[in-house]
């Protein structure tokens, strides 16, 4: 698939949608027979994101034919209480 055929969107700040269209053609020859297949179709996947993600920093990269989506988390503020106060 080409990069133009895949869409990665964040909808509403809490849903990641991956969709696309697959278009390909496979040709094979077996002796005197010639076979040509044209598998095609669309796909759509939707993922619910947790509330602590940075939706403006989500990236999608094609690495050796595999779609890799990076979803960074927001840093949590942890309040530390000194042991002497307990």
List the main descriptive attributes of the protein structure presented here:
86 residues, mainly beta, three-stranded antiparallel beta sheet, two-stranded antiparallel ribbon, 0% helix, elongated, Small_HSP, HSP20-like_chaperone
Q: What Rg is obtained from the alpha carbons, in whole angstroms?
A: 22 Å
Based on secondary structure, the structural category is mainly beta
**Major beta sheet summary:** 3 strands, antiparallel
Strand content: over 45%
Number of helices: 0
- Strand-and-helix sequence, N→C? EEEEEEE
Protein name: SHSP domain-containing protein
Family: Belongs to the small heat shock protein (HSP20) family.
Domain SHSP: 1-86
Keywords: Stress response
Map the helices and strands:
Blueprint: E1 6-11, E2 15-23, E3 26-30, E4 33-37, E5 40-48, E6 59-63, E7 66-70
Antiparallel strand pairs: 1-2, 2-5, 3-4, 6-7
């Amino acid at each position: 698939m080409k990069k133009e055929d895949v869409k990665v969107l964040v909808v509403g700040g809490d849903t990641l949608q991956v969709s696309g269209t697959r278009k390909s053609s496979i040709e094979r020859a077996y002796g005197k027979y010639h076979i040509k297949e044209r598998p095609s179709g669309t796909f759509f996947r939707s993922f619910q994101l947790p509330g602590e993600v940075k939706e403006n920093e989500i990236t999608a990269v094609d690495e050796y034919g595999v779609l890799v989506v990076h979803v960074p988390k927001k840093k949590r503020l942890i309040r530390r209480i000194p042991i002497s106060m307990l």
